[in-house]
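Thread: Newbie trying to understand structure tokens

Hi all, I'm a second-year student working on a class project, and my supervisor (Dr. K.) asked me to get a predicted structure for one chain before our next meeting. I've only ever worked with sequences, so writing a 3D structure as a token string is new to me. If someone could post the tokens and maybe explain what I'm looking at, I'd be very grateful. Here's the chain:
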Amino acid sequence: VQLVESGGGLVQPGGSLRLSCAASGFTFSVSAMAWARQAPGKGLEWVADIYSDSSTYYATSSVKGRFTISRDNAKNMVYLQMDSLKPEDTAIYYCARARGRRGQGTQVTVSS
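---
Reply by user tm_fold:
Sure, no problem. This is what the structure looks like when written as tokens:
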């Protein structure tokens, strides 16, 4: 299982970022995928899940209506579109297979 996240960076409050995760080493199309984040000094927080049928679940109420998880089974990719970003969204964001194995993460910093 290999998961490689990309797309993080520094963005101003109210801005947008799109995170990408390239998956390999397993049958992606039948796997649930998820995004989690870890803010400085805090524990891991699950953000969103997407299932093999592309149904979604947003585990963190604070991101509902601002974040959108999606997947492309043809490319073995999962995405997290993040809009209306807030400073409290600052964290390392991880892609995970079925809330298990995670990638190395990508840093998202929301600051003016």
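A couple of things are worth pointing out once you decode it. The first strand starts at residue 2 and ends at 6. Residues 50 and 56 are 4 Å apart (CA to CA). Feel free to ask follow-ups in this thread.
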